[in-house]
Amino acid sequence: MTLVGVRSTAPSRGLVAILVENGGPAVLAVPVNAREGLLLSAGRSARSPSWTALLEQTCRALDGRIRSAELDVDADAALRACLVVSRDEREHRVLCTPGEALVVAQRLNRPVVASPTLLRLRDLDLAGDDLRLQLTRWRGELTVVAADEGAPPS
User: Fold this and answer.
1) Which backbone phi and psi does 130 adopt, to 5 degrees?
2) pTM given for the model
């Protein structure tokens, strides 16, 4: 999966990171908090938070390596994430929030992998009949956000 941007879902309702499947049609919207959204939207050019370097150095000190970030859903279809850490040819999955997984993957240049179940349940259907309605709604929301960003501070 490749991060293509961070968008507001609606005024005061939160942010989502938009991911596109590498070489495929899948598109995912992953909720992130404001700090994660800022880090992700700034790209690799922004200064990394110290905790990502600390995490990587700790893994190395224990002869491990963060291989990837995995996104999945649990039995209730709630979005879940983990970091895949390898050590001595064994993989360990360390649970984290989806936003944390995306930040670590971006900052440490690791791949983001979405499970087939997640893709099936959460994929934005770009070929669906209601796509035009969805895109119209998103355009309206982006127009409101753009107008809010251009307004003078009150």
Assistant:
1) -90, 10
2) 0.75
